[in-house]
Design goal:
Chains A, B: It comes from Hyunsoonleella rubra. Chains A, B: InterPro entries: 6-PGluconate_DH-like_C_sf, DUF2520, NAD(P)-bd_dom_sf, P5C_Rdtase_cat_N, TM1727-like_C_sf. Chains A, B: This is Rossmann-like and DUF2520 domain-containing protein. The structure is a homodimer of 260-residue chains. By secondary structure, chain A is an alpha/beta fold. Chain A folds into two domains: 150 residues, Rossmann fold; 102 residues, N-(1-d-carboxylethyl)-l-norvaline Dehydrogenase, domain 2. Chain A is built from nine helices and eight strands. In chain A, strands 3-2-1-4-5-6-7-8 form an eight-stranded mixed sheet, with helices on both faces. Chains A and B meet through helix 4, helix 5, helix 6, helix 7 and helix 8 of A and helix 4, helix 5, helix 6, helix 7 and helix 8 of B.
């Protein structure tokens, strides 16, 4: 049985609470949050506190606080030489106070409080300073049902950057499509099956192989029509830049071999 | 029973063949293709031809040829006053020869020969010149199991443009993520659950509400780190431009209310 104390109650903290609460191999010692109100509804399920000095002994302390609060909170912890991890994709492991054994437990998933998620779809990227701590964190992740990947700092930072492209930037592509369909009284809903299929395709095929469309085919007539339809200069800039990027990616594929 | 003759054997043509072949309410009269070899393996299932002068009478002729061939092929058809439709998102309905009754039967989906698709996930956008023809095309689409949407030319062009954003441009976001993870010896596979979840989220939530991440939170420290990690100038340009677009979209949301 691995004992865990959770700090923070944002999206990651709340999802981790639920996963730990469900797991039979992990016990949640305490849940700390700066504002006790936001976790008070859980007080019958776990010991809650807003007083950092009352934290008891646990195998792992998981900091799910905001990036900028990680250094501060880790030095305020009233003990040393215990395993303390943060969950951020782009924060250095050395931001954690060096009085602790340190690690990173980074969930590669988009977690919103409002959306349920199956933890088998939450790969955990684990980084530790001591090898021994890796094994404990791996057991913890597996106990929550998560796939596990050992990473170093460089790999984690690159994964976080890549996640911005496939999550935030992709979502902004959806947003722009929403804007332009709404402005012409058509329905964004019609695009939803295409959105799912585009994501599904790259589960078994490389994005390189999955590409189609006017940019890839070099269909200048359609590209010109599209640019004329776009009303915002910024949308035209995005259209031009990503079209160029697609053409550069596929520049070595003869046009005649490109799928329509 | 609706009788259909199919022209062209690319991605759309091949998927339509399969859907029509499966449907009990639609009969496939003939399948024409310029090159008979590419459809010769289907000759036991349907009457195939590469001679346009041999086309027999059918209720609908569906042109799935390339955008640039639509006008030509439609004028070569050896009859008039029958219903002829094309399947292109961005080609004018008037590109079809005016000797025909004309329509557009545009599937809003990414169809690759190699990937199976359920036609319930292929919304058909229908445009016709005569109202009566709309009802026949609607019956045809419903017989294939497709959702149906009546559109005018402007709406269809906008939907095609929006489809480029959610399909081709999104796929290029995946491609860039693939490139940067590969270059650092990490695994693109780790991103696959996040790709699915990002697509799944906007099935019930607007892309505006679903947005998260450093651009949205105005986390300049992380944005700077990410830009330093990107090696290609073009990737930096894309990062900057889409980050700006996200910030403009959410400019009216106070930073403190933005989700992490």
């Amino acid at each position: 049985m691995i004992s865990v104390t959770l700090l923070g109650a944002g999206n990651v903290g709340t999802h981790l609470f639920k996963a730990i609460h469900k797991s039979k191999q992990v016990s949640l010692k305490q849940w700390y949050n700066r504002s006790i109100e936001s976790i008070s509804s859980y007080k019958n399920k776990v010991s809650i506190t807003d007083d950092i000095s009352t934290l008891e002994e646990a195998d792992v302390y998981i900091l799910t606080v905001s990036d900028d609060a990680i250094a501060d909170i880790s030095s305020q912890l009233p003990f040393e030489n215990r395993l303390v991890v943060h969950t951020a994709g782009s924060v250095n492991i050395h931001n954690l106070d060096k009085k602790h054994k340190r690690g990173v437990f980074y969930p590669m998933q988009s977690l919103s409080k409002s959306a349920e998620i199956d933890f088998k779809d939450v790969p955990i990227c684990i980084e530790t300073i001591d090898k021994a701590d890796y094994h404990l964190l791996k057991s913890l992740a597996l106990s929550l049902g998560c796939p596990v990947k050992k990473v170093n700092s460089d790999q984690r930072h690159v994964l976080h950057l890549a996640a911005v492209f496939v999550n935030n930037f992709t979502n902004q592509m959806y947003r722009i499509a929403h804007e332009i369909t709404e402005s012409e009284a058509t329905e964004f809903d019609l695009l939803k099956p295409l959105i799912m299929e585009t994501a599904r395709k790259v589960q078994d095929m490389s994005p390189y192989m999955a590409q189609t469309g006017p940019a890839m085919r070099g269909n200048l007539k359609t590209i010109k029509k599209h640019l004329a339809l776009l009303k915002k200069e910024q949308h035209k800039d995005i259209y031009n830049l990503i079209t160029q990027s697609i053409q550069d990616t596929h520049a070595s594929t003869p046009l005649s071999n490109r799928k329509s």
